Fold this sequence. Notes:
Radius of gyration of chain A: 22 Å
Strand content of chain B: 15-25%
Oligomer: heterodimer
Helix content of chain B: 40-55%
Strand order of the largest sheet of chain B: 2-1-3-4-5
CATH superfamily of chain B: Cobalamin-binding domain
CATH topology of the largest domain in chain A: Rossmann fold
Helix content of chain A: 40-55%
CATH class of chain B: Alpha Beta
Distance between the termini of chain A: 56 Å
Strand order of the largest sheet of chain A: 4-2-5-1-6-7-8
CATH architecture of chain B: 3-Layer(aba) Sandwich
Largest sheet of chain A: 7 strands, parallel
Number of helices of chain B: 5
Number of domains of chain A: 3
Number of strands of chain B: 5
Number of strands of chain A: 8
Structural class of chain B: alpha/beta
Strand content of chain A: 5-15%
CATH class of the largest domain in chain A: Alpha Beta
Order of helices and strands of chain A: HHHEHEEEHEEHHEHEHHHH
Distance between the termini of chain B: 18 Å
Amino acid sequence: MTKTEEIAQGVLAGDRRSIAKAITIIENNTSEAQKLISSIYPRTGKAHVVGLTGPGGSGKSTLIEKIVREYRRKDKKVGIVAVDPTSPFSGGAFLGDRIRMQELSTDQGVFIRSMATRNCLGGIAKATKDAVKVLDAAGNDVVIVETVGAGQSEVEIIKVAQTTVVVFAPGLGDEIQAIKAGITEIADIFVVNKADRENADKAVMDIQAMLQLNNKENEWKPPILKTTAITGEGVPQLIEKIEEHRRFLGKEVGRKRSVWKIEAELTEAIKERVASSIIEDLKKEGKFEKFLQKIMERQIDPASAAEKLLHEKLRKPS
Amino acid sequence: MQSERKIRVLVAKPGLDSHDRGAKVVARALRDAGMEVIYTGLRQTPEQIVETALQEDVDVIGLSILSGAHKTLFPRIMELLKQKGLTDMLVFAGGIIPEEDLPEMKKIGIKEIFGPGTRTETIIKFVLKNVPKRT
């Protein structure tokens, strides 16, 4: 048995050291990573993957700690992937999500892993998806993914999570940002955390108002819940809603949504590959460099350059 | 995706003192040197520290202590690391540790101890030089 096979076996047996090593292999994207994933993949798909996202300071980590405690009370095993940004300057990262969760660290039914984005756009490490698969295959009932960010980037979470929870806190001035970011489309559940603060009801109303502007007829109406993570208030209700959403996904309409998500993911994967293959071509032909130079000399702007290049490239031979 | 191996470091504060300035300065310096630093906050038990090191699969553990309880807590941490089979992790320490205790601390497997006034570059160099080669 190779070392990777051994680790894969360990993961399937729920061995914690193997789980940790498997995630490292994935993060470093060695040639072993794909082998590892393909050998554990048949055993994935059992865990419910819950994404938590929202602006910094809204209390995500503290809330997760309470969510996990609630799941543990129900004797569910939980895996957590907490994503923090990589510094674009040094390539290093300060991963501090555990600070709020350390009391869970010695619970053998909980596995927490911190991950840096390693300069991936989207608020999610590229390796996050595969780390989730490892925690899933290792027999966790629930896998929670915590991501950074406010704004467009957090939309990425829906490709990883089955149920996406968007967390706000009163007084962060997030309401307008939320509208900008198109968060209405990604949230399955809204949470206004720090509900003991004043203005919590106003935050709820702002989200309600925003949802009303959403004309689309959806079978799932995202509920808006209030929690106070520090005391745990509202957390059982949140778990109940997460479970309700899980049941919804099991139904016909819900499944349609899952298909839609996979479709979006596939579309994106194709786009990425098309773009990189075109760019590679342009580089080979020297056109990329040529336009780069022109842009640097301010003869043309980047968008117009892209248009010209693509026009040539995509023109059908007549 | 990058395929380069990042150095992952756990910076932990065992015991009951609440002076985390030093630990945070070191954490920040290591981050700025391109490492991924996991910081767990104050008042960690040896069990929490070792379990965290395991889950995070770190290469390096930095312990900061100013309470004077290093002679109790450090041996316990080293023992637990051994029990869990985590003997390939580099362990260093910092804080207030009397000169006369240094030989004992090194004997139990703490590779280096940095006292007050240590330059962060010294610590970065030490980590880069001694980080275990893992595949």
